[in-house]
Design brief:
heterodimer; A: mainly alpha; Four Helix Bundle (Hemerythrin (Met), subunit A); 6 helices; about 75% helix; elongated; B: about 650 residues; mainly alpha; two-stranded antiparallel sheet; about 65% helix
């Protein structure tokens, strides 16, 4: 059994993987079941609405494609932020972190715009099965993006205070894992919920 | 300092070391418990809190049994009766058996794998406080239904499984179900935190040389349980969120008028619920897998088979949930598939039972109280398991569904299994964490009363089920032939209660006057027995190096040519890891700092939950408390 510690961390662990990184992976595994359950409920109730409005009448696929693209791009800037801190370039890391957060906020704004649009056209949590399953699923996803934005901005503030150093790159890596996961969940949602619109 | 003392056995040598060092670290003051991040203190708090909930859940069960003792009684009204069986089930599962298992994991995982603490000590403290506050939150509901002392109970009354749409506003007005769904949600967070922590600890903090297949079986079962926790709890969380959105915000998840189906709830609940069954039983299986080898003075028979059976159970537990739903009309194909998978999952369980029996076979049995409970576990759990197999036959299940036969079955596995295992574990490890032996005579009184009371309570329920008595009825007519068996079950319940009182008495007298335990009172096999009782705060003066399964045993014994254990001669290569060199006081070992932030963060959660029920103004307060706690936690200058 190898006990060599990778260069990024001070602690030796039995597996060689940092404790915090292992924790993050387990957390994301657990989250996969969480979103899996929400998506399953949506799919189970797909096409079972007794009253409208129905998904086909509301979805604006071009618009949501653009906001999905924005979220995808935020993953790119997240990768660049990690690459920057691993090089020791804190200034670039800061830029890319803010960039990621702003793209996240842009995505959330798009979601808020979409939600209000749906609501104005008669869809609420109470209207039908579509309203309940759609808002709860995408709402929980939006909440995850929001928490990610808060974490990104918190780290950005800490780095302005000079508290983030090259040796903290694992922190950025973990935030990145979370961010990419939330992004991937959105790709699944976009495919199963939006593109396979149903009735 | 105490180096090897010539002519004395290694165990007493270790005792001498302990005297030289002082008997563990004294626990300082009340407040140290609020900020502690020590896994042993957290484990003790988990255990004590869960035991208090056990008493509460036991009283609820007694009230149910009094009501059912004779036909046509009016001791509890139907509503009170429903509240009692709901709170009994919810309490015993979420507030007793799960946290008692977690208590053992907390106490034992670091000690058994040779670590100084868990991987995330503050997350561990957070888990405990969330559990405690969640349990209290759930029980507050008793007082919200009007005048408690006039018997107006606000507690949930929809069963521990909370089948929608019964739990919807239309059928369950009042806020009992709100307390239930939010309370269980909070408890789920505690379980998740614990599960993450234990997996990382087990995978990452093992002592040098402790490869996965040198880990004690209890550690393996803890690992499987933790994986089940982190994958099962989020499914329950989603079900509870859906119910929450239905009840509080008017969503339609379980609203048949809008096309919703009750089957959604049942699927989600039992996809959580069946792994949950193994979350409840696997720690107990781990416990007796430690007790049996110690008191048989043999290694566990077929260690890899027991381990792989545990892993197999972990995987298969995800494929059997619909056997809770045979009567919902899933169709012949689904029913057959789930019937077959249910039969299959009994195979690894059976493998374990045979391995335990083979462990005892030919061993030098020492019939101490822990061994009594372990043997009791095997016998009672086997009956429970067999009655479970009868449910896997779909036509048979059609008859048994919703009868007392089911009640008898799951108590047979949860009480005869989990609780017997847990009591065995308490008798076994009590000396390690208190330094005192529990009295063996009273322990055996406790065991026999519990065994007799248990069988008096639940075997009559098997008969009642076959006689057709349905579950969840507040009373029954006189002429159905159920009277005798119900009266017998009530008598049995009180015998169990008396046995628990004997246990409490035993704990009190043993803490006062119990025999000193020493490091290794049972001549046991695993690492926790190599250090003083109670263990010092830092556990190991020097992290041990592990060379085999049951490493501590092999430090004490070699085998003669016939394979019988022979003590290692004094002064040989034993006890090298706690041999009291100048580092023996544990000075200079870096331990995680205490912290109040886990407690502060935990307070935020029930605050938010109260806000959801009573006044949305409380929600931001709870969020701010949570945020302050989490930011303080993250920014706190400690290293774990």
């Amino acid at each position: 059994m190898a006990y060599a510690a990778p260069h990024t961390q001070p602690l030796e662990t039995s597996t060689g993987v940092d404790n915090r990184k292992l924790l993050m992976w387990l957390f994301l595994g657990s989250e996969a079941l969480f979103f899996g359950s929400l998506i399953s409920a949506y799919l189970l109730y797909r096409n079972r609405n007794l009253t409208g409005p129905f998904p086909r009448e509301l979805y604006d696929i071009p618009f949501t494609s653009v906001s999905s693209f924005i979220l995808l791009m935020s993953s790119v800037s997240m990768v660049l932020a990690l690459a920057a801190i691993q090089r020791g370039d804190i200034r670039r890391m800061r830029i890319w972190l803010v960039c990621t957060a702003l793209l996240g906020i842009l995505f959330l704004s798009g979601q808020a715009y979409e939600f209000t649009g749906f609501y104005d056209r008669g869809l609420s949590l109470r209207t039908n099965l579509f309203g309940s399953t759609f808002f709860v699923l995408t709402g929980f996803h939006g909440a995850h993006v929001s928490i990610g934005v808060i974490i990104l901005l918190s780290v950005w503030v800490r780095s302005l205070q000079g508290k983030i150093k090259q040796s903290d790159s694992l922190t950025i890596e973990l935030i990145g894992l979370y961010w990419h996961f939330v992004d991937i969940v959105w790709i699944v949602i976009f495919t199963l919920v939006y593109l396979l619109t149903g009735r | 300092m105490a180096r090897a003392i010539p002519g004395r056995s290694p165990v007493t040598m270790a005792d001498a070391l302990r005297q030289a060092r002082g008997a563990g670290e004294p626990y300082r003051g009340i407040w140290s418990w609020f900020s502690t991040v020590d896994h042993k203190k957290i484990g003790i708090m988990y255990g004590v809190a869960a035991f208090l909930f056990f008493l509460l859940g036991g009283v609820e069960a007694l009230l149910v049994r009094i009501q059912l003792a004779a036909p046509n009684q009016d001791f509890l009204s139907p509503d009170q009766y429903n509240a009692m069986f709901t709170m009994h089930g919810t309490t015993m599962i979420f507030l007793v058996v799960m946290p008692l298992g977690v208590a053992f994991m907390n106490l034992l995982i670091p000690l058994m794998i040779g670590a100084r603490d868990v991987a995330f000590p503050r997350l561990n403290a957070f888990s405990f406080w969330v559990f405690l506050l969640g349990g209290l939150f759930l029980n507050v509901s008793f007082f919200t239904g009007g005048n408690f002392f006039k018997g107006e109970l606000g507690a949930p009354n929809t069963g521990w499984y909370g089948y929608a749409p019964l739990t919807e506003n239309a059928f369950s007005p009042g806020n009992g179900v709100d307390f239930w769904m939010l309370g269980v949600q909070i408890l789920g967070i505690a379980s998740l935190a614990g599960g993450f922590n234990f997996i990382v600890t087990i995978l990452n903090l093992r002592a040098p040389g402790m490869s996965l297949f040198r880990m004690p079986v209890f550690i393996w079962m803890s690992l499987v349980t933790s994986f089940l926790l982190i994958f099962a709890m989020p499914v329950l969380a989603v079900a509870m969120f859906q119910l929450m959105f239905d009840r509080l915000f008017g969503a339609n998840f379980f609203n048949a008028a809008a096309g919703g189906t009750p089957l959604l709830w049942q699927h989600m609940f039992w996809i959580f619920g069946h792994p949950e069954v193994y979350i409840l039983i696997l720690p107990a299986m781990g416990i007796i897998s430690e007790i049996l080898p110690t008191f048989s003075r043999k290694p566990l028979f077929g260690y890899p088979f027991v381990v792989f059976s545990g892993i197999a159970i972990g995987f298969m537990s995800w494929g059997v949930w619909a056997h809770h739903m045979f009567t919902t009309g899933l169709g012949a194909a689904a029913n057959s598939a789930f019937g077959v998978s249910t039969i299959l999952i009994s195979v690894p369980t059976g493998v374990k039972i045979f391995n335990w029996l083979a462990t005892m076979w030919g061993g030098k049995l020492r019939l101490t109280t822990p061994m009594y409970f372990a043997i009791g576990f095997i016998a009672m759990f086997t009956i429970g398991g067999l009655t479970g197999v009868t449910h896997s036959a779909v036509p048979s299940d059609y008859q048994q569904n919703d009868t007392y036969y089911v009640v008898a079955h799951f108590h047979q596995v949860l009480f005869g299994g989990a609780i017997f295992g847990i009591f065995g574990g308490i008798y076994y490890w009590f000396p390690k964490f208190t330094g005192k032996m529990l009295h063996d005579g009273w322990g055996k009184v406790n065991f026999w009363m519990m065994l007799i009371g248990f069988n008096l309570t639940f075997q009559p329920m098997m008969v009642l089920g076959i006689l057709g008595m349905p579950r969840r009825i507040q009373t029954y007519p006189d002429n159905l032939g159920w009277n005798f068996w119900n009266a017998l079950a009530t008598v049995g319940a009180f015998v169990i209660a008396a046995s628990v009182l004997v246990f409490i008495y035993n704990v009190i007298i043993s803490l006062r006057n119990g025999a000193e335990a020493g490091n290794d009172p049972w001549d046991a096999r695993t690492l926790e027995w190599s250090i003083p009782s109670p263990p010092p705060e830092h556990n190991f003066d020097e992290i041990p190096v592990v060379h085999s399964v049951d490493d501590f045993w092999h430090r004490k014994y070699v085998e003669d040519p016939k394979g019988r254990p022979v003590p290692v001669p004094a002064g040989a290569a034993v006890a090298t890891h706690q041999d009291g060199r100048d580092g023996g006081h544990g000075h200079g070992i870096h331990m995680p700092s205490p912290s109040y932030f886990p407690l502060i963060s935990a307070v935020g959660l029930p605050t938010i939950a109260f806000g959801l029920i009573y006044s949305y103004a409380l929600i931001p307060v709870g969020v701010i408390i949570l945020a302050v706690g989490l930011y303080g936690w993250v920014l706190e200058p400690v290293s774990e």
